[in-house]
Amino acid sequence: MHTGIQSLKSAIEPSRIQLLQHPVYHQIQTLSELQKFAEVHVFAVWDFMSLLKSLQQKLTCVQTPWVPVGSANTRYLINEIVLGEESDVDAFDNRISHFELYQQAMHQMGASTTAIEGLMLALQSGTSIEAAIQQLNCADSVKKFLNFTFKIVNQAPAHVQAAVFTFGREDLIPDMFTRLLEKLVAEAPEKVSIFKYYIERHIEVDGGHHSHLALEMVSELCGEDDVKWKEAEQASIEALQIRAQLWDAVTA
């Protein structure tokens, strides 16, 4: 492992542990509480895709005429992650993005999708992301979370975006949360089976293969530049802190 990755991981570990130990995981015990969690968490599932696609735009050529951009290794890394996130499979091997899979899980469990679907409609009608976020009927911490993401998307260089994507946006899922899902599925499989599949798929793909690819991407983009590594570290810590505030919105 690159020494820069090791140093970055050490620097963000306190914020990572704090997020893992957030009280939200203890408070979710019933289906109705899981619904409230999903109604907030869906925004993190969605804007993750915008961060990913921004990286694809920066690190590969998405225009015509095509010309080589960056290194082939980095192009492979980001395209491999995009492939899995944007066109994975559901439990029946139908192609689907992770965001759309999450929406299906919300519908199945009876969670409200009014806010996230309203945001999608606003963006599809041409509303700017800033205005669409401002119009959201949700907690201020959700808006702050989204504004942070799009500040990174619109203003941050590629190495910072990659670090936030890799370290600040991983969904930390403690064992107690997966045990809770086992309990809820046993009680009401017709309500929670898709959400359980989403979590399992996330752990399998995002937490395993994609995690290794993302680490390689950060290493390649930061290289031996100490300033870039420091910028990546600071942005990752801020991203973890913003995610903790998002969980605060759930507990509230």
Notes on the structure:
The protein has 252 residues and is mostly helical. 78% of the residues lie in helices and 2% in strands. It is built from twelve helices and two strands. Strands 1-2 form a two-stranded antiparallel sheet. A hairpin with a 5-residue loop joins strand 1 (88-89) and strand 2. Helix 1 runs parallel beside helix 12, helix 3 runs antiparallel to helix 4 (72-86) and helix 9 runs antiparallel to helix 11.
What is the gist of this entry?
With 252 residues, this protein is an all-alpha fold.
Main attributes of the structure:
252 residues; mainly alpha; two-stranded antiparallel ribbon; 12 helices; 78% helix; 2% strand; globular
Question: Helix/strand/pairing class, anyone?
Answer: mainly alpha
Regions with pLDDT < 50 over 5+ consecutive residues? none
For the secondary structure, the number of strands is 2
* Beta-strand content bin: under 5%
What is the end-to-end distance?
39 Å
**Based on CA inertia axes, which overall geometry fits?**
globular
Mean pLDDT: 91
Helicity range = over 70%
Q: Largest sheet, described in full? A: 2 strands, antiparallel
Q: Give the topology string: H per helix, E per strand.
A: HHHHEEHHHHHHHH
Side by side, the strands of the main sheet go: 1-2
